[in-house]
Design a protein that fits this description.
Strand 4 and strand 5 form a beta hairpin. Helices cover 50% and strands 12% of the residues. By secondary structure, the protein is α+β, with helices and mostly antiparallel strands.
């Protein structure tokens, strides 16, 4: 038993014990984050072991030689943004697009994403993204800059290794699903891959926001939404700072110009839907849709086609059906 001869030694021993415990907890959390608590599986992935090209070709239903010699090329297209400006898309050639759809449906579809993710997930929509934030005291809206283009190929490669492919297969799958240093916005595989790859990011934010601070977190592609039942300004600042650091860890940056903090006395919108009292399409849009429908039914021209109006009415019905 160690003899402590003075109060100073007692204090130093106590401080050293606390520091050792904190370091041990950090080391454990680091181990769990890096290995996902499966050391042998992590080590195999790091060594490039796993399923090979023959198994990949079998699952995709494509001859190995064809799989390894596919033409990987894209063409640019631009579509207008609702907020103004245009969005750049990279559209794969027909042969590559067909293969990417096979990868999506046969390899990626059954893999697990985080429960907080609602964008591009089967059976989920902007309504499911908005519902958890209904009636909250404060809603924080955050946006990741250039989300798809800054999802790096090395993260894609590491993910494919983690789910069981060997180094050669992971490199091939990465070359088939990334372009110009990121996920091509316009490829069928990009939305699903972005959700799968960012499981760790979503888990870290959820633990920080929900487990420790009783908040709510959802993500729809590059839109992150966090809400709290009570308004604590210091907590809000701390959460934004944490998220900024955490997304930077994965190679992203928050778009500071799009940070929004919405209190209950303001109109709180989440992925375009109002969540103050109950989830709904904004009143201004509902009025506009009624006016457009009246004009079309009266035989006059309107700012929307009949097909566009039908799409909006489908959204209204979906919101009503999914609303508690």
């Amino acid at each position: 038993m160690l003899a402590l001869d003075s109060p100073g030694q007692v204090v130093l021993f106590g401080l050293a014990s606390v520091l050792l415990m904190v370091f041990s907890l950090w080391l454990l959390s680091r181990y769990q984050r890096v290995t996902n608590s499966h050391f042998r599986h992590w080590l195999r992935a790091r060594r490039g072991k796993g399923m090979g090209i023959a198994e990949l070709a079998r699952r995709l239903g494509i001859p190995e030689i064809e799989l390894q010699n596919i033409d990987v090329s894209y063409h640019e297209a631009f579509i207008p943004k609702r907020s103004g400006g245009s969005r750049r898309l990279l559209i794969p050639n027909d042969e590559l697009k067909r293969l990417q759809r096979l990868i999506l449906h046969r390899l990626l579809a059954k893999l697990r994403t985080h429960d907080a993710v609602t964008g591009f997930e089967s059976g989920l929509s902007i309504v499911e993204n908005a519902l958890p934030h209904v009636g909250q005291a404060v809603v924080i809206k955050l946006d990741i800059t250039d989300f798809f283009p800054t999802t790096r190929p090395d993260r894609v490669d590491a993910y494919f290794r983690r789910v069981g492919w060997d180094a050669e297969c992971a490199a091939l799958l990465t070359s088939l699903t990334t372009h110009d240093g990121g996920l091509p916005q316009g490829a069928p595989t990009s939305p699903r891959l972005s959700n799968l790859i960012n499981f760790g990011l979503d888990r870290a934010i959820e633990r920080f926001v929900c487990d420790a601070r009783r908040g709510t977190y959802t993500r729809y592609a590059d839109d992150l939404t966090i809400s709290f039942p009570r308004d604590y300004p210091k907590r809000i600042r701390g959460v934004i700072q944490f998220v900024a650091r955490r997304v930077r860890h994965d190679g992203y940056e928050l778009n500071r110009s799009k940070v929004r903090i919405l209190r209950h006395h303001q109109q709180q919108r989440v992925t375009g839907l109002v969540v103050n009292g109950r989830v709904n399409v904004p009143r201004r849009i509902r009025r506009k849709l009624r006016a457009i429908e009246h004009r079309l039914n009266s035989g006059h021209s309107a700012t929307m086609t009949r097909e566009q109006l039908t799409g909006w009415k489908s959204l209204l019905r979906m919101v009503e059906q999914k609303r508690p």
